[in-house]
Design brief:
- The structure is a single chain.
- By secondary structure, this protein is of the alpha+beta class.
- About 35% of the residues lie in helices and about 25% in strands.
- The chain is built from 6 helices and 6 strands.
- Strand 2 and strand 3 form a beta hairpin.
- The longest helix is centred in the C-terminal third of the chain and has 13 residues.
- The relative contact order is 0.23.
Amino acid sequence: MDQHGSFPVKLYIYDVSRGMARQLSSLMLGRQLDGIWHTAIVVHGKEYFFGGEGINSCSLGGTPLGEPDSIVDLGHTEVPADIFIEYLTSLAESTYRGDKYNLFEHNCNTFSNELAQFLTDKKIPSYITDLPSDILSTPFGQALRPLLDSITINPGGSNITGQR
């Protein structure tokens, strides 16, 4: 792969509720949610995301979630693949180890937002990063928090440190 130049960066957005959030959120939470979002950053020909097994990568659209529900063009980066992988490896060994995953506070969207800023100096859309606080601000969200805190999302892929 050419290590010089400008590389496109995209945000893949998946609704892990498969439309159920849109249908049931008003009834359950008292407010409309369009989805329960899982995100990944696509750069250098791969999709990168964070879950309960740490930082993972896969081919584009290669998670069990299938094709993304939407794609946001975040622009371009001049960070070459080798530097990017070094950065990911350092994150995987510290901030984004699998045991650091928390559904509400340190999740795939937190990871995607951090990578987007590193690569493009842009944040991912706030309707995604604000979702946990939107849910937890409801009485139903507060009641479910103990149960939801134990949930880990693992959409598949290869762990970048080679560990599972």
